[in-house]
Amino acid sequence: MLGKSTVFNLKGFIIGNGMTDMYIDSDNPLLESLANWGMIPFPTWKRAKELRCLFLWEKVPIEPNNDPECADLYNYSMDLIKDLDIYDLYRTVYTLNTEASSLKQEPELSYELYLNRKDVREALHIPDYVQTFLDCNDDFEDNYQVQREGSIWIYRIFMLYGYKMLHYSGDTDGAVATLGTRRWIQRENWPITAEWRPWTTDG
After folding, report:
1. Is 176 exposed, middle or buried (0-12, 13-18, 19+ CB in 10 A)?
2. Closest to 168 in 3D by CA, of 157, 160, 177, 159
3. Which residues contact 95 (CB under 8 A, 6 or more apart)?
4. Is CATH 3.40.50.1820 what the domain over 12-188 is classified as, yes or no?
5. Domain limits of the chain?
6. Alpha helix ranges (H) inside the chain
7. Residues 66-91: pLDDT tens digits?
8. Which of 57, 108, 170, 187 is least surrounded by Cβ atoms within 10 Å, i.e. has the fewest?
9. What is the tens place of the pLDDT at every residue in 122-154?
10. What is the largest CA-CA distance in the chain?
């Protein structure tokens, strides 16, 4: 049993595609992202903005007070991208009659395999007794209790205590769009110690 004096040797943590703020992340920035990527007509997103449509993940215990037209706009947009991989919208879903959420990446492209490589685990100082990384843990997701406030509150606490936090989202990910991640980080108004710079690999 853990007591008040329990100390964890935690230096920092990494969150990948974290749905941090229920009103900013996940489905809510999706239509705007799709319009900016040229995947849906821009007037579709503009109309959704005019109606102040709120699109939330189905597990979120918040009932949006949307105009009925909002659902039509969302369904129309989803129909336009139905053949694309929601986790990488520049890729096509090649398996017929299969939802994007149930697809697994090809082994050579798997982020899961990369993070479980021995050299990568050693570089991240992950001990051998720590379990392997999973892209998606279905058991966890099925039993996960979603909070109305999301997880934004815990980031503020970790920031006060000086923990290092790396939060990332895929630049072509529709499920947790970078647009939402950027917005909640900007809203927190944390100090910028290094300006934006291009991220390159192998030159």
Report:
1. buried
2. 177
3. 103
4. yes
5. 12-188
6. 30-36, 42-50, 68-80, 111-115, 118-123, 138-143, 152-160, 178-188
7. 999 999 999 999 999 998 988 889 88
8. 108
9. 999 999 999 998 877 778 778 877 877 788 888
10. 57
